[in-house]
Amino acid sequence: MNNTLIVYYSLFQNTANLALEIAVQTDGSLRELIPDKNYSFDYNTAVKEVRNQIARGFCPKLISGNEPIDDYETIFIGSPNWFKTLAPPVMSFLTKHDFTGKTIIPFCTHGGGGFGQIENDIARECSKSNILPGIAVNGTASPEEVTSWLKAIGYSQ
């Protein structure tokens, strides 16, 4: 078994597409985080729901994706940039696991806001981990961008 896990949450598939490309290039296991209650597919309604959850520090229950991580040494953690931070389902995942001694590699998709506070939020929750530089993609990434990033951070299987 490859000891690399790619965990992500995606509402509109951009983060899912980036996670899939990372999985293809690393031969890692892919794990989608699915909250017990879906967000609205209407953008404006979803924005209100998310803003409210983030303001309250709400971490939704996950019905999928929260399985143990003990067998993995390297974990890529992906989220869309929502109001400069992680999507609440990703925060749920982070608060449920012990990342001590693991290598954590963040990634996100955004519409112009870059990482915002995502790297800092992951570093706070994974303080006993080795955190490598992540990738923030506006929209979608080409396979070449992912390859260059993985090479730049010294990722090897």
TrEMBL record:
Coiled coil: none annotated. Residues 4-152 form the Flavodoxin-like domain. It comes from the Bacteria. InterPro entries: Flavodoxin/NO_synth, Flavoprotein-like_sf. PANTHER family: EXPORTED PROTEIN-RELATED, FLAVODOXIN-LIKE DOMAIN-CONTAINING PROTEIN. This is Flavodoxin.
